[in-house]
Amino acid sequence: MIEIVAAKDMELKDILSRDAEKAEDVSQTVDKILENVRLFGDKALREYALQFDGARLEELEVTAEELQAGWEAVDARFRETLALARQNIAAFHEKQVRQNFVMAEQPGVVLGQRYTPIERVGVYVPGGTASYPSTVLMDVVPAKLAGVKEIVMATPPGADGSVDPAILAAAKIAGVDRIFKIGGAGAVAALAYGTESVPRVDKIVGPGNIFVATAKRRVFGLVDIDMVAGPSEILVVADGGCDPAWVAADLLSQAEHDRLASAVLVTDSRPLAEAVAVELKRQAALLPRQEIARASLAAGGRIILTDSIAEAVEIANAIAPEHLELAVEDPFALLPSVKNAGSIFLGRCVPEALGDYFAGPNHTLPTGGTARFSSPLGVDDFVKRSSFLYYSREALGQVADRVIEFAQREGLAAHGRSVAIRFEEKQV
Amino acid sequence: MIEIVAAKDMELKDILSRDAEKAEDVSQTVDKILENVRLFGDKALREYALQFDGARLEELEVTAEELQAGWEAVDARFRETLALARQNIAAFHEKQVRQNFVMAEQPGVVLGQRYTPIERVGVYVPGGTASYPSTVLMDVVPAKLAGVKEIVMATPPGADGSVDPAILAAAKIAGVDRIFKIGGAGAVAALAYGTESVPRVDKIVGPGNIFVATAKRRVFGLVDIDMVAGPSEILVVADGGCDPAWVAADLLSQAEHDRLASAVLVTDSRPLAEAVAVELKRQAALLPRQEIARASLAAGGRIILTDSIAEAVEIANAIAPEHLELAVEDPFALLPSVKNAGSIFLGRCVPEALGDYFAGPNHTLPTGGTARFSSPLGVDDFVKRSSFLYYSREALGQVADRVIEFAQREGLAAHGRSVAIRFEEKQV
């Protein structure tokens, strides 16, 4: 099911399946849907709800009554779990909130930077089997903390026109302002262009299938989008002191996501490598989603043997995994040498699942090696910076020559004149 | 040359020319260039240098001797101006540097967030008439402050195979590590894929023509890119107390950039509006680039009359301009009501040119209304966040039920098992 290879015998680029880009091209279909929603608005959305979700909808928006009914349909225990998760997520993301700054260090000169929230944000939440209340919390809580004025959720309805109560409960706890029963590329179009009933947003976040991802790429620029996530990935760096059963369980928790998911173990211990391979076989057989898990381990699964844990971390940095577990004796000592990873799980008792749902850090993370340059979803994704500057006329006078000289060098005379004219004798 | 319209008689979407997207489609040409550089590396780059720049190159990289020669070819006064600008830009951007944080508020639980610099960054610098040393400083200084290990500059050579000395001097002062004589889509390809002599980077920033912009879009995902900038824009909010000559000069400093540039005045004073219209005519005639300035004023120029300055700011927020001047009596009082703008110039003596070159805030700003959701280039663009979490086994035990419950709700049994297994009796 999974092969053990020595680090020196392999090419890093072969380690993770990074074929998200090569996915089926659906752009023509998506373009048609975008166009129809742009032109026909709600009418098109209703047609797509019938066509794709089998739902005959009058109202596209979830009513207060439906929201309340969904809330009550969820047992008190899970509502409490949702509330605790929200609390942990909020506690972590509050620390990300930025402060404005101002500089007044030279006479007559004030410089600064302000943060303002993005006005209106759309959160896409997939339906069906991939309906994840945790995603609602992870996407909405940072937006609320950022001060976003209105958060609009889009999620496809079931054939009976209803929305999963767990999703509604999570939306209520997270503080979503409006919820629409729209899915796929049509939902992205509605959020980007606006329709009679769906307000146009400034940014669209949230996971989705290839149609949703393609639609997000298409409307990017008109609105902002979060990352277009590829298949989920875990890389576990483990030393010989690990329990192979625990390591295998963590790898499988990634492998069960989908066939493209990648689960990689990097260890300096051959005994552990071999024991984990055995455990993967044994435990996979116990899983309801064992077919998916086996398929993704066969395709994207690897066990890599290194000469040292330091070499294992180098490999992790080169791969830049979405999730990195440091299942070693002293994980905090290794942390400084980690350069590229979305979220880092420290120690032998910190399975990825803890972060996926509950601990507080975001679970929307850079995939496909993009952790080399991008970050987990956070409050930063829901604000923007503006810089500001004030100079007194005297202060401007002191630098006027420099600015004019620069303008002349760049062949932009009017730039220079706009400074010089402030010191000319009045013409009239 | 420019029309005066009342705010109530117009549609906001018509105000700014936002046709950057509709620019000539060059994707086929660009795809071919990307492919050739990917396959043939330096050989392709040399061919394109000959074909597009008329330069016959042996070495693609600028040598230490060339760099020094360029440095000496620039007069001492301008080298000093570059150094002062660098100092101001560094002083402002230092304030943007992020701090890691760690939370240790529950027993056995440590959460945190670390910043790590992007490893290697490519900075594209256009050649020819659009060769701007200020851009070198604005792109490189924040990257240095972010801790980027290697900064690689790409700029097209002249027909004699040389690079503009002012660009080399700026690169030296800013601290660029390596400089290559490569331009256009080929340069973007070289930075994204790497060649025999050009190292592969993790992120590409910097302005460029439609070929460069298209190539950046194409390689986005494989590497990160900064914004793809549209035509430059200024919106001046001015009250009746302004000198029309100054306001006109500021509008013209934007209009001279290119024919697509937009210069908009919004004022509550008809006398000012009329006087500025007259001044625009008069001053345009004095400009070396008067044809460009007249063309862009005719296409994208507007003077908008409002009933109040408050209404003027509302219009500014709806347009979300790249540059916003608040040329009013008390600009600081207006600042809090500004929601969407890239950079804000406060007062009557703060022409945009001051920020373009010298004051310190970045001049790479969101265009085309993207200030609704994006920010000026800054240190944030050269670092990425990673979150980390540690739980002791006891701490995990206390939340295990919640995590397992969540996993079951989402139909991901293996996620739950990865937690449960840490508390099972050993099988062996």
From TrEMBL, chains A, B:
Reported cofactor(s): Zn(2+)
Residues given in the record as Zn(2+) binding sites: 254, 257, 356, 415
Residues reported to bind substrate: 232, 254, 257, 323, 356, 410, 415
Alphabetically ordered keywords of this record: Amino-acid biosynthesis, Histidine biosynthesis, Metal-binding, NAD, Oxidoreductase, Zinc
InterPro entries on file: Ald_DH/histidinol_DH, Histidinol_DH_CS, Histidinol_DH_monofunct, Hstdl_DH
EC number(s) from the headed UniProt entry: 1.1.1.23
GO cellular component: cytosol
Active site: 322 (proton acceptor), 323 (proton acceptor)
Cofactor note: Binds 1 zinc ion per subunit.
Pfam families recorded: Histidinol_dh (PF00815)
Role played: Catalyzes the sequential NAD-dependent oxidations of L-histidinol to L-histidinaldehyde and then to L-histidine.
NCBIfam families, sorted: hisD
Protein name: Histidinol dehydrogenase
Organism whose genome encodes this protein: Anaerofilum hominis
Organism ancestry: Bacteria, Bacillati, Bacillota, Clostridia, Eubacteriales
Gene that encodes it: hisD
